[in-house]
Amino acid sequence: MINKNIDEYLDIFVAHKNFQGVNKKSANSLEAAIRNAIRLSKKNFFLWNGKDCREVYYAIYSLPRNLTKNKMFNGLNGKELLKKAELLGVDRISVSTAERYVRSIRNFSGWLHSQGLIKHDYFKELKPKKIDVKDNAQRMPFSEKQIKKILKSDIFEDNHNYLKWIVLIAIEMGMRQNEISQLYRSNIVKNDGVWCIDVSRDGSDQRLKNKNAPRTIPIPKTLIKLGFIKYVESCNERLFPELKYYELDGYSRNVSKWFSGYKKQWDFGKDRDFHSFRHYFIDKMKQAKVEEFITAELVGHGYEKETYGRYGGSMSVKTVKKIMDKHSSKSVKKMVTRYRLKKLTQILSR
Fold first, then answer.
1. Which top CATH class is 137-348?
2. Residues with Cβ within 8 Å of residue 145, at least 6 apart in sequence
3. Per-residue DSSP letters for 28-55?
């Protein structure tokens, strides 16, 4: 069982992370990872030696998926927990999740050592194991063929369907799911005569992932031609008021649920989810040989190279818009053509 002192110091550690700016959802995920790792030994954490830490490190990669939700594992720790998982034949956590668990327990152990609460930081040298799959292959981007398949869905027939605009923004602008879901009408601005999305956390219910996330992104002409600005003008405050706010997830939870259910009809595997739209956007820019600092600025990534990262200023929105327009999704461009033909037919038939 988890020792009382562990509960006490884990609470202090999580509070420290919150003070440092780690959001509540990430802090909760960090705490859960540490608690699950600690369950891999029956010994009091403060009595772990080097051997205990190594055994837990190796065992993390065999942890069952959804450990805390599965009641069959209640009260089980150490080898009993792993034997039960093996007996039941349940799925194990993914390698990427195991890596997160290792980083979490290392982080906690290092903090305890820095506070003088443990004599040795045995986890310091126990780094996540190397895997053969490259970082950019762990979560796959959508292909243009898959984007075309998605755009054939019925939601794209209705300009008032909020899910249509959420997906199109993800495809054409590479924004994060929650960044899109929490948009207000006030986030749609004109900058130097160009319609843009101001990604900010001005609202009390708006949150951003990191210091690089605040940015201004030009809205590509494909979205303008499809009627996005008219949709914005029809809104009162929030662009997608249908989405409910949750303390941990912001406004994005129901988008995740919708997409997880909807993607089954497209036969997409576990390696593709809503975030794959963002990977698609980044990969498209990479294949088009767009300068990395431009793409980094568009998607809210840091750019650490000395020349551009530290001394370079932002490019004009007009210049960036031209780049985005040039490399818009071919499938979305075809969608624009069909939309304009439909509008023309309606006008002529009056």
1. mainly alpha
2. none
3. HHHHHHHHHHHTT-SS-GGG--HHHHHH
Answer whether 16's CB lies under 8 Å from 86's CB: no
**Residues of the chain predicted below pLDDT 70:** 1-4, 131-139, 303-314, 350
| Nearest-angstrom CA–CA distance, 187 and 121 | 46
pLDDT score of 314:
64
Q: What is residue 131's predicted lDDT score, i.e. its pLDDT?
A: 64
And the tokens for 73?
């594992």
Angle at 345 between CA 224 and CA 333, to 5 degrees: 35
**Radius of gyration over alpha carbons of the chain, in Å?**
24
User: What stretch of H or E contains 226?
Assistant: none
Q: How many CA atoms lie within 13 A of 59 on its CB side?
A: 22
- The pLDDT tens digits for 317-330 are 999 999 999 999 99
Contact predicate 262/128, CB 8 Å: no
State the residue for tokens 């309606």: 346
Rounded to an integer, what distance in angstroms lies between the CA atom of residue 201 and that of residue 191? 18
pLDDT value at residue 203:
81
Res 136: pLDDT: 42
Buried b (16+ CB within 10 A) or exposed e, 100-127: bbbebbbbbbebbbeeeebeebbbeebe
> For position 138, what pLDDT does the model report?
54
Q: Which residues contact 154 (CB under 8 A, 6 or more apart)?
A: none
DSSP lists the bridge partners of residue 188 as: 197
Q: Where are the domains of the chain?
A: 4-131, 137-348
> Which amino acid appears at position 326 of this protein?
K
DSSP 8-state symbol, 184: B
What residues contact residue 73 under an 8 Å CB cut-off, 6+ apart? Answer: 64, 67, 81, 84, 85
User: Which of 298, 257, 251, 249 shows the shortest CA–CA distance to 274?
Assistant: 257
